[in-house]
Amino acid sequence: MGYLIPITLQQKIFFQKLWTKNYAWDTKLSQEDTTNWQRIRSKAREFEKRIPRRIADKASTHQLVVCTDASIEAMCAVVYLRNKESQNILIAKSRLPALRAKHTIPKLELNALTMGARLSINTMKELEGQIKIDHVFILSDSEIALSWVKNWTAHTDTGVLVRNRCKEIAEIAGNLTKRGIPIQFGYINTKINPADLGTRGISGSEFRDSIWWNGPQGEGWTENAQLFQVEDPSTSEEEASVNVAEEAETTGWTEEARYNSISKLRRITAWALRFVKRISQSLPQSRRESMEMRIPELLEARQEGPLTGREIKNATHAIVRTHQQQLKLQIKRDIYDKLNIQEDDKGIFRCRGRLGKSDLSEEEKTPAIILPKRPNSS
């Protein structure tokens, strides 16, 4: 349920950082790490809380209030069930950014908003037929992320990740609207944003009576929320079929059809990334950052020496992502739900299924989606 996220956050961060130190399974922690762990444990102690088991009334009308936040260390979304009498926590979720990823805070805030939107639709599905929900609010304290969502159809230079996240949020909003449930997005001040606790942590003694349990109270938070609705992409785009679509004769910047070997294509793409990285150094910083948002592999591209394994792997990511940009228009939106297709932090769509519980590597557990019968698709 995620109720204890604020007092377990620092423990999760500690273990994530521990993996980077390459401890063997039987190696004792260093004195510094041992001290840090004891400090983290002590802060989580002395916590006890009673929460009501009954927070809904079938005779009443309810609203979902979803608060989201992100920091450089974590992203969090928390859902509250609200009626005229009370407002109580329902479910929460947190996630740590990948250590190798170099996302900006606004992008992390947008990821948190996406997490909140996903939680809202999943919660609605669980509550459907049990209690009545007549409104959904999704709140963030990031004005940049909210601006991206609000004007997502107008922004064409925000990069693949931002646009795809905004599009997913808009699709979820459209899904709820079609169910007859209005959904609005808005701003919430950090001081009254309970999700903030899920991104920085809190001691056990402070946690007991914190804003986490009941969220922003009263109607005060709506005064400066600047609430808005987002445009449903289905009203501005024509949906295509995945089964009978005629494949468009288009090529991405990697032009995969020109090469008869995937290994050759990877190496050529890796050299191309180096070339783009080199010429980007003479561009203004804003232009360079825009290029890195569109092609994140540029961040790790070297400028001299033989190609590295990391560069070859990054070239593969660039090839797959470019291929998927051509693929997206050929897939019906409901297929994404049926196959549990989700976008990773590199902008690549992957199928998350039963392999997730196996001992395979992360990329083997979540295969990328590609079209069959394509050059180099094997």
Describe the structure.
39% of the residues lie in helices and 12% in strands. With 378 residues, the protein is of the alpha/beta class. The protein has a five-stranded mixed sheet with strand order 3-2-1-4-5. The chain is globular and about 65 Å long. The chain starts with a helix and ends in a 13-residue tail after the last helix. 29% of the residues are buried. Mean pLDDT is 80; it is low at 237-251.
Helix residue percentage: 25-40%
Number of E-type strands:
7
Contiguous low-pLDDT stretches (5 residues minimum) are 237-251
Largest sheet: 5 strands, mixed
End-to-end distance: 40 Å
Q: What's the average pLDDT?
A: 80
CA-based gyration radius: 23 Å
Order of H and E elements: HHEEEHEHHEHHHHHHHEEH
| Overall morphology | globular
This entry's quaternary arrangement is single chain
Structural class: alpha/beta
Helix count equals: 13
Strand content: 5-15%
What spatial order of strands do you see in the largest sheet?
A: 3-2-1-4-5
Compact description:
This protein is α/β, with parallel strands linked by helices. 39% of the residues lie in helices and 12% in strands.
Secondary-structure blueprint:
Blueprint: H1 5-19, H2 31-44, E1 61-70, E2 75-82, E3 87-95, H3 105-127, E4 132-140, H4 143-150, H5 160-178, E5 183-187, H6 197-200, H7 204-207, H8 220-223, H9 262-280, H10 285-294, H11 309-327, H12 333-338, E6 341-343, E7 349-351, H13 362-365
Parallel strand pairs: 1-4, 4-5
Antiparallel strand pairs: 1-2, 2-3, 6-7
Helix pairs in contact: 1-2, 3-4, 3-5, 9-11
Characteristics:
7 strands, Retrotrans_Pao, 378 residues, 12% strand
